[in-house]
Amino acid sequence: MDSNSRFVIQRLVEVRVEGSGSPSSTSQVPCPPIVCTRFQARLVSTVIKYFNLIMDVDSDAVASDPEASEDEIITAQKVLQTLEEAWLNEKFCPELLPHQSDVVECMMEQVQQMEDNIRRLPRGDFRVVVHRLELDRIRYVTSNYLRLRLEKIEAFTAHILERENDLSPGECRFAREYLAHLETHLRHLALRHMPTNIQDLDHNNITAKPNTSSFVFLRVKGEVNGVVIEGDSNNRDEEIDLETGSQHVMQYRPVAELVRAGSIQLI
After folding, report:
1. In the chain, ranges of CATH 3.40.5.60 domains
2. E strand segments, the chain
3. Any idea which architecture 156-206 has in CATH?
4. pLDDT by residue (tens digit) across 26-71?
5. Residue intervals in the chain for CATH 1.20.58.1030
6. What residue stretches are annotated with the GINS subunit domain (predicted)?
7. Bridging pattern class, strands 247-251 and 34-36
8. Euclidean distance between CA atoms 13 and 31, whole angstroms
9. For the chain, how long is the longest CA-to-CA vector?
10. What is the model's pTM?
11. Top-level CATH class of 215-266?
12. 3-state SS class at 235
């Protein structure tokens, strides 16, 4: 960042807090102070620091990684965007969606690289705080995404195992072991005390099925034509077109495949 840009940012940070007395002693150039509350001062300072972090390039970090390139930076941003979209879809979708384990693994590699770069920064550098906040946010998104998937696997185990392609190898192994332990528990707890003719256990009755008739909020990422909306007992089915960027509330079932294909984002 050039010296002029740094000067502008420095002037923006020099704010006068209501009730704090005189303006900042670091002010050297006559310029009317910005009057704001203490909360606003902290907010402005944080935003400016984050802006400075984004706009400024750490020459030491770049020099230490000769293989770093603009393509890699764009790829990292795209991976994070893909992970956040997968997280929101999984959070608001009534059924389990195809796994994004490749995206998760790639993001974890990026997190490790960011942690290595943080260690190279000098002690007391404010960028360390902002970087760690971003790392915590990424870890939360990743862990919550995986936790949501595990909760659905436990709730709809038998149904999910019918579509094993939606599971990662680890999730598939967990689902099979969970169903086996659940069956063993039910037999030991109840079935062995019942007459022989009713001791058979139907896996489909052990766990529930997702309610795909539930309503979801969605945003259209690309124009979609011919979406069939199911009518009630007195109405016929309706066919509608969804425009790019439009937002709707409708049942999940008619748009299930569009969500899986990435044409629709749940919000």
Report:
1. 215-266
2. 15-17, 34-36, 215-220, 224-229, 238-242, 247-251, 264-266
3. Up-down Bundle (1.20)
4. 444 444 444 445 544 454 455 445 444 443 434 344 344 545 444 4
5. 156-206
6. 120-187
7. unpaired
8. 12
9. 92
10. 0.68
11. alpha beta
12. coil
